[in-house]
Amino acid sequence: MSQHDNLQRFLFDGAPVRGALVRMDGAWQQVLARHDYPPAIRKVLGQMLAASALLAANLKFDGTLIMQLHGKGALRLAVAECTNERTVRATARYDAHIHDAPLAELLGEGGTCVLTLEPKDGEPWQGIVALEGDSIAAMLQHYMERSEQLDSRLILACDDQTAAGLLLQRLPDGHGDPEAWQHLTVLADTLRPDELLGLDAHDILHRLYHEEQVRVFEPEEVSFACNCSEERVGDMLKLLGGQEVAEVVLEQGSIEVGCEYCGQRYVFDEDEVNELFGMDVIEAVRDEQQRH
After folding, report:
1. Which cysteine pairs make disulfide bonds (predicted)?
2. pLDDT digits (tens, 9 = 90+) for 29-62
3. What Cα–Cα distance (Å) separates residue 91 from each residue in 30, 81, 183, 215?
């Protein structure tokens, strides 16, 4: 296991509080290697990626947690995903002239944040996160406190090498001292960004909570992975419809689709498009064009 690509869950024996730390070096570098993101986008995506891993830490189902930011400003879309297997991926769409600015300014008026839980079996669930606070961490804290009635403290940081985060949550029905929450969060707030990015989980927990009884679980490896496939791209083409896909193939000789997450290219020629739609859709569209 990579020392610096893992998720570390922990629990306080003397207080009804659980926590998780995540640090991603290699996984974050895999995201950055696929796109030349400007600094403003790297900052947003790195924090989103760390947050998605932390929020997915306590999922009780097989599936994916997806965090999306939608905007009408310079930042059009930012997506970070984490699966129950601790694989992550992220992507963004943005204007070429984007510069570093507060999140609300980047998204513009009408920006939204959506959290989606997508189980492998069952219906997906979505929650709308209000754009409150001046950071992704503050926004998600407000959401967890209001929507899930779960007091939380979220600290996020990233640079060009590492994306990392710390999450504390007060358990509604727990053990130990119920008044310890404030003490533990005050200590968490002393953690500097350079410490969060530079120290491993063991050192951070010792730095913050060496006087507490902390139960540390087995660390879980985090890695970059993309679940795109020819079959998934084919399903997307089916949603576009045979007419539109066939017109592109007739004009260009094939239709090419690139994965926004990993950059993989998928090319479908005439025979593959006909097979995809279960009929000679290319010939039908060609005949229609000739008639007109």
Report:
1. 226-228, 259-262
2. 999 999 999 999 999 999 999 999 999 998 888 9
3. 11, 9, 37, 35
Residue type, 24: M
pLDDT in tens, 58-110: 888 899 999 999 999 999 999 999 999 999 999 999 998 899 999 999 999 88
Closest CA to 66 of 23, 129, 9, 109: 129
Mean pLDDT of the residues in the chain: 91
Q: DSSP character for 31? A: H
**Cα 229 off chain centre by:** 19
d(CA 291, CA 102): 55
139-152 per-position pLDDT tens digit: 999 999 888 788 99
Considering Cα of 84, then 88, then 94, then 100, what sign does the dihedral take?
positive
Q: What angle do CA 147, 178, 174 make, to 5 degrees?
A: 70
Whether the CB-CB separation of 81 and 67 falls below 8 Å is answered with: yes
Q: How large is the angle between the packed helices 270-277 and 281-291, nearest 10 degrees?
A: 110
Distances (CA, A) of 30 to 80, 89, 127: 13, 9, 28
